[in-house]
Amino acid sequence: MRGAITRLSPKAAGVEILMDDAEAPAPHIDKPVLTTEQLSLWYGSTLALDAITLEIPEKKITAFIGPSGCGKSTLLRCFNRLNDLIDVVRVDGALRFHGVSLYGPEVDVSQLRARIGMVFQKSNPFPKSIFENVAYGCRIHGVTRRSTLAEIVERSLRAAALWEEVKDRLDASALGLSGGQQQRLCIARAIAIEPEVILLDEPCSALDPIATAKIEELMQELKERYTLVVVTHNMQQAARVSDYTAFLYLGRLIEYGETARLFVKPQKKQTEDYITGRFG
Asked: Is there a domain that residue 159 lies in?
């Protein structure tokens, strides 16, 4: 536990931000799906995450906010071990999924990534048909019967609010879809293999307001069945869609709590400064 030491951080956007090491109280989570405890991560000699401890609740939307380079996406990628693909990464501390260490010897990383799906900032449909994009993960996991795949594809596209727009052109290239449709297709592809958690890294950053509204509405529907964790630079979006919000700065978790409380009555001055636009 850190002591109540105050230090001056590097300047952010020309503003001196006072760093208060006293920890804000963490929210009580009844059913944490994902847990980190004193999680730190280095890219080579560079510390990117500094002793992060938090719990992600089941079937809620948790948002990570903070300025560029604060560690939001790095933390998100820890949950399905995508950072393992970077040679110079070193991780310390505990990271658990339903209480089981994600770095335990019994963990199959491929199966883990099936249970914890990922939707990236830039939509990345494969150069295949709409049907084959959604069916791709199922084929990898051994589902080959066409009738079964057709059921999964329809169910997933309906869940992603895309079925009515593409049902008559499933054999057409996914690259012909609009940006918002491509992002919803990527969400359909993620949920086709029935994950428990969906990680979304800036899913609306490249979309127009209409497409963004559709994705946000979809997220509200998906949390009835899945746990969602979303990284966003858009604080208004975090306030609109999330149940819990974590504010990160310089690789540290500054404050984490229920969104309605954090945006109205933050407990840390750093949080207040960020959400009121003093820096960012």
From this structure: no
Tokens 């310390």 label which residue?
Answer: 92
90/103 Cα distance (integer angstroms): 12
Whether residue 119 is contained in a domain is answered as yes
The domain that holds 108 is classified in CATH as: 3.40.50.300
Return the closest-CA partner of residue 262 out of 238, 280, 232, 278. 238
159 with 192: CB under 8 angstroms? no
Q: Which domain holds residue 16?
A: 6-125+194-275
Convert the pLDDT of each residue in 92-126 to its tens digit: 999 999 999 999 888 999 899 999 999 998 888 99
Neighbours of 16 (CB within 10 A): 10
**Residue 12 maps to a domain:** yes
- pTM beyond 0.85: the answer is yes
pLDDT in tens, 177-214: 999 999 999 999 999 999 999 999 999 988 889 989 99
- What dihedral do alpha carbons 175, 180, 181, 182 form, nearest 10°? 40
Give the integer Cα–Cα distance in Å for 64 and 60.
13
Q: How many domains does the chain have?
A: 1
Residue 13 belongs to a domain: yes
